């Protein structure tokens, strides 16, 4: 009971952030109390750090890369190109924006897509005089696709990194399983969003009001470096990760190279349009503290026996076959994430799967990936399901767009379950194909 009270109190402080209290300090405060009360022991600290360090520093490096490219005008340039490809037709622009969101999510993670793409899309729509209802449709689309298509690569979501590292899944194996599944998720997301918002789409919009994409560029050197750097980064993941090189090392190296280019370190800073120090100061360092603190609090739930109880439920699901195991695990992880946030949710799921005994290897693998899918998509049930969603809502409020919790949950509960179900079905079918091969 004490472990549960500590977790709920810590989670409440993380979500509400009273008087601007950083999420890292809230989580670390909870971890400190857990240590003082004996809910966790000092031996648990290195065990948890071993689980989260790679995911945490990868996330920070990805955000640094994303912010540098955003400062250079990369994302606005891409959005303006997409707006022109829409050809002045609202019903063509909508799927293009969804696909753009999915592409950005796959490389820059769901947080980068939700936080960087959303304000750019909103600014373009306002310039094109879209109605409030049409603007809301695009805003919801960019917010939802950032999570529902964050499956394909280990780096596409902090949840993916934690789970892949915990179970020793290689970058290549993860991509082989999840890239096709993510394509299904993209199509399902687009289909559900289209059914929900097709009537809100304007027939036409004035292309003449769009500036040329080149006008969005503020740092030509960083922009020109973006495409080769992204290609090399992806190649680095596929080549170096199987050799045991941490994902954080590959991502961190790319971030340092881009910082050097942005700051013109090779030129003594002459001609720099971006302040690397400002980018580093504003990087999400709180996430480092949050990851260790929050996962220590979650480890207290494991020590108190919660994960063992969940493990028994997983064994029961596995006894009913792979379909029940995958769908049950996926929806269970989604519900858990929606009420306790997906970052602690994925660790609770991983610990439970590890403790579940006597499950066939293929069924266990299904459960591992289903847990990831549930924790990636499940946060869309509620606003507190992920930190990215809370930050996304904050960004929208600063742009004058308010989405209440009731409105959000009505949308989330309508859109998320069918997409989640389709994706879990695709996972079972695709893993069977891989197993047969």
């Amino acid at each position: 009971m004490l472990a549960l009270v500590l977790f709920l109190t810590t989670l409440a402080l993380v979500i509400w952030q009273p008087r601007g209290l950083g999420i890292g300090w809230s989580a670390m405060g909870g971890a400190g109390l857990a240590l003082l009360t004996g809910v966790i022991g000092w031996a648990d600290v290195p065990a948890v750090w071993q689980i989260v360090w790679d995911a945490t520093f990868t996330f920070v490096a990805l955000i640094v890369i994303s912010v540098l490219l955003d400062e250079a005008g990369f994302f606005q340039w891409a959005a303006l190109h997409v707006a022109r490809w829409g050809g002045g037709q609202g019903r063509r622009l909508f799927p293009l924006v969804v696909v753009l969101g999915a592409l950005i999510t796959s490389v820059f993670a769901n947080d980068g897509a939700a936080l960087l793409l959303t304000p750019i899309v909103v600014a373009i729509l306002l310039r094109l005089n879209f109605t409030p209802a049409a603007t809301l449709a695009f805003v919801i689309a960019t917010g939802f696709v950032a999570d529902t298509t964050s499956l394909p690569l280990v780096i596409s979501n902090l949840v993916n990194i934690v789970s892949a590292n915990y179970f020793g899944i290689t970058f290549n194996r993860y991509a082989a399983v999840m890239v096709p599944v993510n394509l299904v998720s993209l199509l399902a997301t687009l289909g559900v969003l289209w059914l929900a918002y097709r009537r809100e789409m304007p027939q036409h919009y004035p292309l003449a009001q769009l500036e040329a994409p080149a006008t969005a560029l503020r740092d030509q050197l960083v922009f020109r470096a973006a495409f080769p750097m992204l290609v090399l980064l992806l190649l680095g993941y596929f080549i170096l990760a199987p050799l045991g090189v941490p994902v954080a090392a590959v991502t961190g190296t790319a971030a340092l190279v881009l910082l050097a280019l942005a700051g013109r370190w090779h030129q003594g800073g002459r001609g720099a349009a971006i302040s690397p120090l400002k980018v580093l100061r504003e990087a999400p360092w709180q996430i480092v503290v949050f990851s260790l603190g929050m996962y220590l609090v979650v480890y207290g739930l494991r020590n108190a026996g919660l994960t063992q109880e969940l493990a028994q439920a997983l064994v029961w699901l596995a006894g009913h076959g792979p379909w029940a195991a995958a769908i049950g695990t996926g929806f269970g992880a989604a519900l858990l994430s929606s009420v306790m946030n997906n970052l602690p949710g994925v660790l609770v799921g991983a610990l439970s799967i590890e403790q579940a005994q006597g499950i066939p290897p293929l069924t266990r693998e299904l459960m591992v990936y289903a847990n990831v899918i549930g924790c990636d998509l499940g946060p869309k049930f509620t606003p507190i399901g992920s930190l990215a969603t809370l930050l996304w809502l904050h960004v929208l409020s600063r742009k004058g767009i308010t989405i209440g919790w009731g409105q959000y949950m009505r949308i989330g509960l309508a859109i998320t379950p069918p997409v989640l179900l389709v994706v879990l079905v695709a996972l079972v079918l695709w893993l069977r194909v891989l197993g047969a091969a």
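The mean pLDDT is 86. The CA atoms of residues 79 and 121 lie 7 Å apart.
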